[in-house]
Write a structure and sequence with these properties.
With 700 residues, the protein is mainly alpha-helical. The chain folds into 4 domains: 1-30; 31-37 and 44-133 and 153-224 and 242-356, no CATH class; 432-555, no CATH class; 584-698, no CATH class. 59% of the residues lie in helices and 5% in strands. It has helices spanning 2-19, 21-26, 33-49, 57-82, 91-108, 115-125, 129-140, 147-178, 181-184, 189-212, 243-279, 281-301, 306-320, 327-356, 366-375, 379-392, 432-437, 444-468, 515-524, 548-554, 578-583, 585-604, 609-613, 616-621, 654-670, 684-699, and strands spanning 396-399, 404-407, 480-484, 488-497, 502-511, 631-632, 652-653. Helix 6 crosses helix 8 and helix 13 crosses helix 14. The longest helix is centred in the middle third of the chain and has 37 residues, at 243-279. Belongs to the pecanex family. It is found in: Membrane.
Length: 700
Amino acid sequence: MKTGHVCQLLRDVMSLVLLFFPLLFGLGLFPQVNTFTMYLLEQLDMHMFGGNATCSLGSALYCVFRSCVAVIFLYGFAYGGLTEEKSSQHILFSIYCGLLLATSYHLSRSSSDPGPILNILKAQLWVPEEELAKTEDAKVQPDDDPLPKKLQSTVNTRLKSDLLVCTVIAVVVFGIHCSSIFTALQPELNPVMGSVAVALGVLLHYVIPQLRKQLPWLCLARPVLRHSHQSHFEPHHPPTVMWFEKLYVWLCMVESTIVYPVLILAHLTSDSSEISSNIGPGLAALVITVCGLKALRSAFSQPHDQFLVLIFAVLIFQVDFPHHSSTFLVDYFITAIALNKTYEFLLKVQFVVTYIAPWQITWGSAFHAFAQPFSVPHSAMTFLQAALSAIVSAPLNPFLGSAIFISSYVRPIKFWERDYNTRRVDHSNTRLCSHLDRNLGADDNNLNSIFYEHLTHSLQHSLCGDIILGRWGIVRQGDCFVLASDYLNCLVHIIEIGNGLVTFQMRGLEFRGTYCQQREVEAISEGVEDNQGWCCCEPGHLPHLLSLNASFSLRWLAWQVTAASYVLEGYSISDNSAVSMLQVFDFRKVLVTYYVKSIIYYAVGSERLETWLESPVILEALRPTLNKNFVELDPVFNTNIDEDYDLRAAGITRTSFCAVYLYWIQFCNDKRQQKLGDTGKDSTLNKNFVELDPVFNTNI
């Protein structure tokens, strides 16, 4: 009867849920079908196969499909090796180890977006007539956005590189494993490699990132390992690669490509026989394939968490609960999932405690003062809710003035489900008659599009390299960063991090003058080192250290400053009246200087620059400028409006021109894909601009 009552109760509850489902769905308590499917596939690929986050439902299906294909492909070799007498020392198992490492390396370097792969297949297998017509039109009208072509070219190059590298990896690992070195060095090999992995992990992913943070351990007032540009008010060059960045990259490469592969392959060799004897070769082949694939892919894609997984796997299953251990491979697999959920739970608890701490309460309203004390008895339920939301990876949102927290529906890491692709309006994509009727590019949306596109392109060129160099600290999938400057702020959401690839979103562009931008800049640039407090008194603090009050207050923030100085190529727009610009001589000089620089920029960036420099007609016209005493005496030049005007020569000389524009010419040349070798004062390129300078000013 009791069982019948329970079943009837469950039936009644399900009936009520189904009846109220439209209302609950309307309140946002349940996800859409495509969102839930994407979330489920993403969680399956990440926790089962060691994959990365996905960007859409199609990419999630693609990632799970390729992971399953990889497991099926490797399963046969593992099963063939385990069914033989030599088991893990059979040649089939050696082939399996080589293919496992090569496959894991390739999958870690593959993006979740199948678009570039499909484009390559289309280009190689068939080219329809319509595509040929589009290609011919593209040759006549070049695309104004070269980045998709660069991305396609990069993917193509990576595939060719992976084909070569994976072949070498498979052959080398096969040869090493056939030599029985993994068996001969047991049982010392596993603990030694584990100790090396833990030591490297602590150094690379804890000590060095803390030393490079803006406030190391929230105790020091400035970073210990600093960039050379941090002392500059306004850097003029891209940041140089420091010695500690080179050391960091090399050690990370050693860790992810040597230490962890050797450790995982050693445990594969030693544990596969035991797993096969316990559950049979058929199921054992599947278990070691899934566990080995996840461990190796995680070591390539997310090496910053592996030393923690290794430490807790040893402590839990070899020290605390040795009777529950099921070989190191299975223990490592389970610990990786548990550690991921535990880390998410700790973040949610920190978020809750930061909001409800008594000294954090601002008492901004009467309701807040009333609701906050009544929420204290429900703190246990809040933490339980945080645990449940961490298990299912659901967001935890403050509600009713941060007095209550509610869990939203489950979402993938890319929680912004809709893509807002901006598109600017200018002469390259709209008709001239539209601009004559009304100024299409003067609205705020178009200006936002220009900034979004430029910042996105800048990050696409530099973000992955900066993360590899450790300039963003320890970056995990799902992290959000605020890039703040005196002129604009934006939010960068990291979606996918692989072995040499990053997928991100940029949102929340805010310009100077808005309240949010002002408060963010003030909070980030707040000088905490000036705080002299120690509890209720102000005795001061030691040099380059934070006071007790400052260190305590920083630990109760929901964010941290990763770097106070980060160099990124930006964009600026100035809206000035032409009347005021042309009435004052100083403004005229600035206008003429920028006009000449703009023409230099487009001339140096032209694909026909080499043809112009080799043209006999142009070289013949430049012959008079070869004289060292050459002076351009065109009466259009004036000392009031030309910054490169030479008063002693009463005109423009090569020396005066180079003193103003040579640095800009060299800078533009550095941005070219094919740089010109000679850009000095006597170069042909510089002579060209000296000769064309009168034309520029005459047009002005």
